[in-house]
Amino acid sequence: MTEVRRAGTASASLWERDEEIATITRAVDTLCADRSSPGTLLEARGEAGVGKTALLAETRRIAEARGCTVWSARGGETLRSVPFNVVRQLLQPALVSMLPEEAREYLGDWYDIAGPALGIADPGERQADPQGVCDGLVAAVRRLARREWPLVLMIDDAHWADQETLRWLAALAERLDETSVLVVVARRPGDVSGDNARHLEAAGAMGRPLGPLNALTPDATAGLTRATLGEHAEAAFCREVWAVTGGNPYETVELLAKVQDSELQPVEAEAAELRDLNRSARGGGLVARLEQLGVDSTRFAWAAAILGGGITVDMVARLATLDRADAARCAELLRGARILSVPDAAGQPGVDELEFVHPLIATAVYNSIPDALRTAMHGIAAQLVTDSGLGAAAASRHLLKVHPDDDQEVVAQLREAAREHLAVGAPDAARRCLERALQEPPLPASHARVLFELGCATLLTAPATTIGHLRTALAMPGLDGEQRVDAVFRLSQALLHNDQLEEAVRTVEAEAARNPDPSARLRLQAAQYMWEGIHAGETSSPHRSARLAELAAGCTGRDNAERALLILRGFDAMTHGESAEEVVELCDRALVNGRLAPGLGWTDTEWGLELPMMLASSYAYTDRLDRAEALFTEALRAYESAGWSGGHLALAHAYVGLGHRRRGRLREAEQSLRASLRIAERVGRGLPLYWSATCNLVDTLLARGHVEEARTVADQYGFAPPYPSTIVLPDPRPVRARLLFATGRTEEGVNELEAAEKAAAARGRHNPVVVPWATELARALAGEDPGRAARLATDARRQAERFGTDTAIGEALRCAAALETGQRAVRLAAQAVTYLEASPCQYEHAAARVEYGIAARSAAELNRGLALADSCGADGLVARAREALAVGHAG
Q1: 349-354 contacts: CB < 8 A, separation 24 or more?
Q2: SS3 per-residue string spanning 744-765
Q3: 668-702: string of b/e by CB count within 10 Å (b at 16+)?
Q4: Which helix (H) or strand (E) holds 676?
């Protein structure tokens, strides 16, 4: 057992905490030893009153004694609905102390992303990406840690922190290896659920525990009692102190303070009085003690509990309807009664902030307010916050507590608060405001609009909920014209995200049929074709492509609806293997001066990211890689500058990787695709973006000759049937088949390719580059069924010539050469080299060179192929070329 501390110890909660203090001391020493040392997270977990706050205070003392900068923050039970509340407490003071220009220069590109969440910059008009804001806050800590090193961050009552702070904390904990900072978190084991619990547990899992923090032993309680009341305290009295408090340090301190106030003697004869004294320090006893201080003091304490944070005498006076002098007097009384105290950071001239001595007291006072009065006081507090110019978002936590009363001003305030929350990256806070606005309720004329706003707020976080909101809104009057079209389009997006693609198609198709406005109908038809175009599993209507071609034929690209149809027609033609030149011509007509039109950009929400992705993919598979790569790079830059670091950024990295892969830059492709998967992990598995990154990474690793790595990635990320309902480029079945062949599972690979054949036929997707099932199957069947293999190779060459790109024809010729022997094989291999030399796809060119060199027994061609393969990073191809050269020289 840890040695019992002697008399004179500053805090009861530090008794029997020697091991914890030693851990804290080592962590501080490690931080101070080296600027490049990795960060550390320590977690103090224990029940209320067990001494977590005292450990944080001791951490501050130790850290400041060693010259550290220490910032602290605290969660609050009534403040959990305030987004970024705790992280603002933590970081805002340091940033506010800078000049605005200095803060902007210091945070760089992250200023406009993280600044609004921290309250140091005005939010933009666009909805912020929550993941981007979270990453911006992590980046802010990294930069502040370099500036303020050695830096210690402390969060008390983390179980009551807001969701946005806990998400940031989990993200910071993941990246502490690159941030030299000490983070100390104190929390209770319960009092948190859902996403908050997940984030908090994730952060704790990355750190080291302080504890478990247990109650004081009888010996320690006796030592503390004698240190407080004198060495003459009798053993029986000390044992009763422990029995009454259960060794809880906070309750022990409060009880001993009551003993001192009551002049009770610490002798066995008076030990029976301890239980009554203990009851007066908690729960109903605390409330009774508060009432003894007078009506004004009770009102002051109630108002402080309503405010929860940022408690000042002036603000409390206004809420409690007290004059300034009476309020100051009440504050002193409550401080003397150990109900309120002055926080450490407020001990500066002119600062009159207050806080509750302990969260248990704050909770007891808040719960003691009569229900009706508590609701009324929240309403008054909301008005005070609004009148103070703090904005609708700041007032919204109080409005959420007010009873619905058909108040349209409250509806307007909550809608404004939701917009503010969305602008700083807090969609869950926006959802709560809009759900509360619906309870008011809004007037019939605006009810559907509020539902639409709610659906937009939950689109990315809860698509199933969004569907219900938008369907209800569309069934009500109030959404007309463009608003109705926007709502239908958003509904179809939510259905897509919820893996209800067929329903998404039916939704826009039905609305297009009944909408009388030609321009609106065109937009809806374009949306229908867009969702149909990315559907991987549905059997294609024989007339779909013809109808789309007919619609697009009359489009000049004069507006975004026409441009969308041109892109969709181009993508459809590309996947069907129609003339690549016609595909490019359609895509070019959809651009404005060679660029995406306003409203069709990567971060524009009117159409979403699907259209520019289809456009760039069409260029990528028609050998116009310069245009494709420009678009992919533009997407990456747009999402990074806008702070969109969730699914959009994951897809951007995946498609940049696709561009590298098509170009033959395999090392760069692998790097981009692994970055995509790291981001996708944070978004959630099983989504289409996950499949795009995984499929392309497996394809790239196989091209590099890294078969075991490819198998590891496939196993780790579930790259196996069933496949997603949305199209993945390239088609995952041939890629998985190549992996199966490479690992000796030939029969399974053949089955995969035959399934790819059926799926491609059902959708009419005959592009031999996007879905290269025929060439792969021909190679696999060459030995056991050469007749079928030859027919497949011939069909693949016909499809390639129809499509017309150098890559497609060259790859078909490579396949044909592999099925032949002698001089015919040499001639076909030479033709393949000719085509692929003109292609931008350098890996395929390298492979053709090596195969030609082997067929022709040409050391010169093998050396050319080896050099190309080495420049691509195709290690397996390099090894094959060297082996062939060695065999040739030996001969």
Answers
A1: 352/312, 352/313, 352/314, 353/310, 353/311, 353/312, 354/304, 354/311, 354/312, 354/313, 354/316
A2: CCHHHHHHHHHHHHHHHHHHCC
A3: bbbbbbebbbebbebbeeebbbbbbbbbbbbbbbb
A4: helix 666-683
Q: What DSSP assignment string belongs to 73-128? A: EE--GGGTTSTTHHHHHHHHHHHHTS-HHHHHHHHGGGHHHHHHHHTSS---SSPP
Strands 353-356 and 311-312: antiparallel
Confidence of residue 348 (pLDDT cuts 50, 70, 90): very low
Torsion over CA of 623, 626, 628 and 630, rounded to 10 degrees?
180
Q: For 281-292, what is the HEC assignment?
A: CCHHHHHHHHHH
Kindly give, in sequence order, each residue whose CB lies less than 8 Å from that of residue 447, ignoring residues fewer than 6 positions away.
438, 441, 476, 478
More confident residue, 705 or 289: 705
Q: Quick one: 324 exposed, middle or buried, by C-beta within 10 A (0-12, 13-18, 19+)?
A: exposed
Single-letter residue type at 415: R
Amino acid found at 205: A
Question: pLDDT tens across 195-234, in order?
Answer: 888 888 988 889 899 877 888 889 989 988 998 888 988 9
pLDDT in tens, 38-77: 999 999 998 888 888 889 989 999 999 999 999 999 998 8
**Predicted local confidence at residue 765, as pLDDT:** 85
Write the DSSP symbol of residue 535: B
Q: Using CA atoms, how far apart are residues 337 and 332, in angstroms rounded to an integer? A: 9
Alpha carbon dihedral 294, 297, 302, 303, in 10-degree steps, equals 140
Nearest residue to 849 (alpha-carbon basis) of 888, 814, 805, 879: 814
DSSP 3-state assignment of 495? helix
pLDDT value of position 522: 85
Q: Which residue from 462, 469, 389, 438 is spatially nearest to 130, judged by alpha carbons?
A: 462
| Cα–Cα distance for residue pair 678/691, rounded to 1 Å | 13
Give percent helix, percent strand, percent coil of the chain, each to the nearest 5.
70, 5, 25
51 C-beta neighbours (distance < 10 Å), count: 30
Instruction: Calculate helix-pair angle for 806-818, 822-838, nearest 10 degrees.
Output: 160
Contact call for residues 87 and 165 (beta carbons, < 8 A): yes
Report whether 34 contacts 18 (CB < 8 A). Answer: no
Residues in the chain: 891
Strand-pair partners of 204: none
Beta-sheet pairing, 353-356 with 151-156 = unpaired
pLDDT of residue 358: 80
Is the previous residue joined to 518 through a cis bond, with omega within 30 degrees of 0? no
> Mean pLDDT over all residues of the chain?
88
pLDDT tops 90 at residue 194: no
Strand order through the sheet with 69-74: 69-74, 151-156, 181-187, 40-45, 208-210
Q: Cα separations (Å) of 686 from 232, 677, 682? A: 69, 12, 12
Helices (H) then strands (E): counts for the chain: 44, 8
